[in-house]
Amino acid sequence: MYAWPASEVPVLPGKGRDLRIHDTATGGLVTLDPGPVARIYVCGITPYDATHMGHAATYNAFDLVQRVWLDTKRQVHYVQNVTDVDDPLLERAERDGIDWVALAEKETALFREDMTALRMLPPREYIGAVEAIPGIVPLVERLRDAGAAYELEGDIYFSVESDPHFGKVSGLDAAAMRLLSAERGGDPDRPGKKNPLDPMLWMAAREGEPSWDGGSLGRGRPGWHIECVAIALDHLGMGFDVQGGGSDLAFPHHEMGASHAQVLTGEFPMARAYVHAGMVALHGEKMSKSKGNLVFVSRLRQDGVDPAAIRLALLAHHYRADWEWTDQVLEDAVARLGRWRAAVSRPDGPSAEALVEEIREALADDLDAPAALAAVDRWAALQQEQGGTDEGAPGVVSRAVDALLGVAL
Q1: Is the pLDDT of residue 290 over 70?
Q2: Which of 21, 161, 175, 298 has its CA 20 to 30 A from that of 309?
Q3: Three-state DSSP class for 368?
Q4: Bigger pLDDT: 246 or 291?
Q5: Which domains are present in the chain?
Q6: Cβ contacts of residue 311 below 8 Å, gap of 6+?
Q7: pLDDT tens figures, 151-206
Q8: Please, which residues have CB within 8 angstroms of residue 341's CB and are 6 or more apart in sequence?
Q9: Predicted pLDDT of residue 285
Q10: Count of Cβ atoms closer than 10 Å to residue 196 Cβ
């Protein structure tokens, strides 16, 4: 599977700061000091509907992580998956009377278009669950043969008790985990499971549903968590720098994935930091496909909204915050974009060296994009009120905003 084209990232003078970021597993800030190549895995979409603002906010957060690392003169090895076979996708395809493969391909193509428009840097590897199946089957077989997985009516389940570190990603107690498991794709009430929290690794073939040759596992399809584990281990290895996604993935997805990987390799942890973006609401409820309360990136673009304004609307909120999308949020972003573009359109202006360092400092401090935006606002206001004599300043500001915030002025 291919990703989307990369926009050019300007190289700024000087060097950025090492990133301090909130780690869900420890509950505090950690300073990341990757080697020459920083490694990040971000969980991708299940392509049964268009990209909404909740998706965009999550991928914007991890785009900032990449930009901070690139500014430190590191390379970035970014991997993202596409869950291109799963129950929600199959259900939507059946509801709409279309082929599930065609639905997945259509929505993945639209996602690529949205990411390109928003200037999100693409992953080096963009891997679908279906194409990962040949690498998933041996991992499930290894877990089963090691006694960390068991069969139940043809399905294969992972035993969470096989990982002594289980629970250390989310920090939740068993009762909270059980509630979330039921809400987020698990089956804690299925009779016969050794532990209600045990997640499925391999689902035996069901009539009328797609299935693949699973070798000794029989025909079937992979569970959700093992999909990402196989892709991450294959392309990044253990101990990569950041595992990212929305806050609703901390449990069960990232918790279970970490346990799968840790039992498979005998190493701990799977990722040095588990980083989670907040949820975006509309009309007081979390934006989600199941509720249908969605604001689509593609719809805004079709309505003539500048993608740079959409990006500024996202950047106006701290990535870990839960917030609500409103018309005012977008209006404020459009107005800000206009002020910034007017400010950099002049041939000269106030010195911009200090501004570049302010943006760097803000982003290195747990991706404080609102503080970075405020710094640019102050420079633009000074430009409007007093102007300046530095002929290169507007160009420096334009390149810094592009390189660090992904906004083209």
Answers
A1: no
A2: 21
A3: coil
A4: 246
A5: 20-286 (3.40.50.620), 297-405 (1.20.120.640)
A6: 60, 118, 119, 405, 406, 407
A7: 999 999 999 999 999 999 999 999 999 999 999 999 999 999 999 999 999 999 99
A8: 409
A9: 79
A10: 16
pLDDT category of residue 283 using cuts at 50, 70 and 90 = confident
pLDDT digits (tens, 9 = 90+) for 42-69: 999 999 988 999 999 999 999 999 999 9
Encode 120-152: b = buried (16+ Cβ within 10 Å), e = exposed. Answer: bbbbbbbbbbbebbebbbebbbebbeeebbbee
Residue type (1 letter), 162? S
The total of other beta-carbon atoms located within 10 Å of residue 303's CB is 7
Q: Confirm whether pTM is higher than 0.90.
A: yes
How many whole angstroms separate alpha carbon 79 and alpha carbon 51? Answer: 19
The separation between the first and the last C-alpha atoms of the chain, rounded to the nearest angstrom, is 31
Examine residue 252 and say whether the peptide bond preceding it is cis (omega within 30 degrees of 0).
Answer: yes
> How far lies 43's CA from each of 36, 50, 224, 225, in Å?
23, 16, 11, 10
**Alpha-carbon span 320 to 323, nearest angstrom:** 9
Q: Which two tokens stand for residue 226?
A: 């093992």
pLDDT in tens, 91-130: 999 999 999 999 999 999 999 999 999 999 999 999 999 9
Strand order in the sheet with 37-42: 125-128, 75-82, 37-42, 240-246, 271-277
> At 76, is the secondary structure helix, strand, or coil?
strand
What's at 213, amino acid-wise? D
Residue 38 burial (CB < 10 Å; 0-12/13-18/19+)?
Answer: buried
